Amino acid sequence: MGCGTGYMIRPAANVSLPGKRPDLAAFILDARLAADSVAVQSLPLCDLRLMNDARFPWLLLIPRRAGASEIVDLQEADRLMLFEEITFVSIALRTATVCHKLNVAAIGNIVPQLHVHVVARFRQDAVWPQPVWGFGETVAYEEAARDRLVARIRAALPA
Amino acid sequence: MGCGTGYMIRPAANVSLPGKRPDLAAFILDARLAADSVAVQSLPLCDLRLMNDARFPWLLLIPRRAGASEIVDLQEADRLMLFEEITFVSIALRTATVCHKLNVAAIGNIVPQLHVHVVARFRQDAVWPQPVWGFGETVAYEEAARDRLVARIRAALPA
Q1: What average pLDDT score do residues A12-40 get?
Q2: How distant is the Cα of A69 from the closest Cα of chain B, in angstroms?
Q3: Residue B77 falls within a domain, yes or no?
Q4: Within an 8 Å CB–CB cutoff, is residue A67 touching chain B?
Q5: pLDDT at B35 over 90
Q6: What is the mean predicted confidence (pLDDT) over B5-27?
Q7: Exposure winner among A71, A77, A101, B29, fewest CB in 10 A?
Q8: pLDDT, tens digit, for every residue of A72-103?
Q9: What ipTM was predicted for this assembly?
């Protein structure tokens, strides 16, 4: 109580200790997401990555917010920015692939780090009309094909 | 071309004929969505419905916009309203169920009418950690249990 020796030990109410507010801690991309995908672009909020699965053009949006797991737990400005990035990434992916359907999802039952899937689907793709999650086996890209797709997606993103 | 007889026949450029702009045509809930779910509430943009599957508390948000299939094809005001409704419905569902994880998705490979899934997941549920789409068999609710859940969700929605 008062201004005794406790002053330096107890933090003020408005000072966050590291780890107390996840969004102030350092963001580190989940190791499994990193292993399964390649970087496409750094957006204002999210890392945009391409899943290394040649069956579907499949993007991930990963907000750079340490500890985030649910969209609704993002601070409002971040949530609105995520929705905006989902929107323009969806449009860019459709432009780059001329797909039949977009599949957009935040699941996170296996990898808790918040990530949003944006997948370009075709009526003749490997598992249509099933969703991509949990069906069939991943097929790695040939490097040149992957790089061409990444270039097409980058070109379709807003400048 | 002046105000001759053509005046009443040619529509002005800003008048949409029925069927030309999907959002001005009458919205009719898809028959399969209707058969698989029950009404919870009419939100400003969406019909909120509960899937008749007792394995998971599973909501659908269906924008009342005829012909809509992709989130990104909604007019901007509708898209922002959909994101807002997804947010408060997600929070209400978590409040009503105290679930471990929210799964949110717009897929639509089978039913093209735009609908967004918001599913409450538990680490001990029937197909965890798989997504709900395409795994296992639907289990219909007992009516009383379904009505109790619908009442809890309604109570958790903003007034």
Answers
A1: 75
A2: 9
A3: yes
A4: no
A5: yes
A6: 51
A7: A77
A8: 999 999 999 999 999 999 999 999 999 999 99
A9: 0.86
Cα–Cα distance between A108 and B131 in angstroms, integer? Answer: 9
Q: Is B122 on the interface with A (CB under 8 A)?
A: no
Residues of B within 8 A of A110 (CB-CB) are: 129
Kindly state whether residue B23 falls inside one of the protein's structural domains: yes
SS3 assignment, position B26: coil
C-beta atoms of A87 and B71 within 8 A: yes
- Which residue in the set A72, A131, A135 is minimally distant from B90, CB to CB? A72
Q: Domain for residue A8, yes or no?
A: no
Tokens 């350092």 appear where?
A26
Which amino acid, residue B13? A
Number of separate domains in chain B: 1
B99 contacts B115 by C-beta, under 8 angstroms: no
Q: Indicate the average pLDDT of chain B.
A: 89
Q: What is the pTM of this model?
A: 0.86
Would the CB atoms of B72 and A90 count as touching at under 8 Å? Answer: yes
Q: Which domain covers residue B146, as residue numbers?
A: 17-156
pLDDT in tens, B109-123: 999 999 999 999 999
For residue A150, what is the domain's CATH number? 3.30.428.10
- Does residue A28 lie in a domain region? yes
H-helix segments, A43-75: none
